[in-house]
Write a structure and sequence with these properties.
about 75% helix; about 220 residues; 3 strands; globular; 9 helices; Arp2/3 complex 21 kDa subunit ARPC3; single chain; mainly alpha
Length: about 220
């Protein structure tokens, strides 16, 4: 889900830009490109996955002009590449949406926040809890991170978008529709969870080494 046209007050647009910019500065400080430079195969996988998500974002439903509904894939990208590379990928995807005219550039900060930062942070927290608190079991990792994590991240991103519109919306109709949309969030969560869980399970079966948050020696060799 992302914003296509601005219904937010200027102060909210500025705030989301500053938040997104602050996160990007933190990412650049961590220098995630070192992994890409050191691993050519990782470069190909990351760039290929980013392009695939750009294409998948074209499959969208748009009931109103300012809001589009689509699969986000941030949870899968975070589990496969970890938070820094996943967020850089999300920024590139959102920039691509602006370049091809799908979204307005003023909304870049808000869309990065809703589709990237919030889902990635939720996924990172879920993964840390699973990694530290739950048993070393393949099914626990798959269902807790892949299915439950994706559903929770979708809920978090959706609620963030709704809250932005309710607090800073300039169109009364948009505020009303956002409140109505919040009721349907539980219906949108299973689709993202199912697709993420299915793709993650395929990767864990055929290429577990590709999933950066998954330790195959810990979860498979010791079973």
């Amino acid at each position: 889900m992302s914003f296509a046209q601005s219904v937010l007050a200027p102060w909210a647009l500025l705030l989301t830009w500053l938040l997104s910019l602050g996160v990007m500065v933190w990412l650049l400080w961590r220098r995630p490109w070192r992994l890409l430079i050191a691993d050519t195969e990782l470069q190909h996988r990351w760039l290929g996955a980013t392009l695939a998500v750009v294409l998948m974002w074209q499959l969208r439903a748009q009931a109103v002009d300012w809001l589009t509904l689509h699969l986000v894939f941030t949870v899968l990208m975070t589990l496969v590449f970890k938070v820094p590379l996943a967020l850089i990928s999300n920024v590139l995807i959102n920039v691509a949406m602006v370049v091809i005219g799908r979204n307005e550039w003023q909304l870049l900060g808000a869309n990065i926040l809703v589709t990237g930062i919030v889902p990635a942070v939720i996924t990172g927290v879920v993964w840390r809890l699973v990694d530290r608190r739950l048993p070393d079991n393949l099914m626990v990792f798959l269902f807790a991170c892949g299915f439950f994590g994706a559903a929770l991240a979708t809920l978090g991103g959706g609620l963030t978008a709704v809250l932005l519109i309710i607090v800073a919306g300039t169109d009364p109709d948009a505020v009303y529709l956002a409140q109505e949309y919040a009721r349907f969030l539980p219906l949108l969560m299973p689709s993202e969870a199912f697709i993420t869980g299915m793709l993650l399970s395929i990767l864990l079966v055929y290429h577990p080494a590709w999933v950066a948050t998954f330790n195959d020696h810990r979860y498979i060799d010791l079973q």
